[in-house]
Amino acid sequence: MDIFDTHTHYNDKMYDYDIEEIIKKIRKENVKHFVVIGATIKESIEACRLAKKYNEYFSVGVHPDVLPDFLPSSNYANEIYKNIEQLIKERECIAIGEVGLDYYGENKDENNRNIQKEWFIKFINIKKQYNLPLIIHSRDAYNDTYDILEKFNGRDNNTIIHCYSYDKELAKKFLNLNYYFGIGGVITFKNAKKLKEAMSIIPLENIVTETDCPYLSPEPFRGKRNDSSNIKYIIEAISQIKEVDKEEVAKILYNNALRVYNIK
Asked: Which stretches of the chain score pLDDT less than 70?
């Protein structure tokens, strides 16, 4: 089966000592493509370098957990925009992300949340300006995430809700916007009841596979460093839930990734 890992962090320091071996390993496991995700400007630059080196793809974004403590309308934001615009011009850049909202933790006060929302809207506008797919991070922030996406992004066939973690009813609302759901190793966990229930109503045509490596390794490697070779366990879990042959599932998911990222 051909595999497309739509969300990796091979720019993480956990791969500094053996990235060459990892790439060789995942190629043997039929990983045909992967996207290196930018979660800071520095990581986006490194993602660009890796994408060029391995003839792959990358995204540019700033994770809500590491957003600056100033609004995107301030003068201080200009340097961020310059870096983003420069990276977007690279042929290998195929998406904006990961961006979004993260309200998890005690330090997410109202001011922090307002800054996150302003930046989220700004990134959506950049996505629309350059006609690129959008990769969404949303944690403990469903209502604001949905409201902003509905108002500023609208119904769209190239937006991915990365590492979907909400329930079945909320999945229906994202489906009404025609979004894709990034499904990773969590789907293999025994205690992932809420996600598995959501999967029961998400069509295969709206799913893409991801590892979020080096994080969220599937069973039987939970707690260990993840890589794209573990996608096969995610495909197997989806196959069992959907009661569809895993080779057919793999084919659909691979084509979904090509479609959402506009890869011919």
From this structure: 107
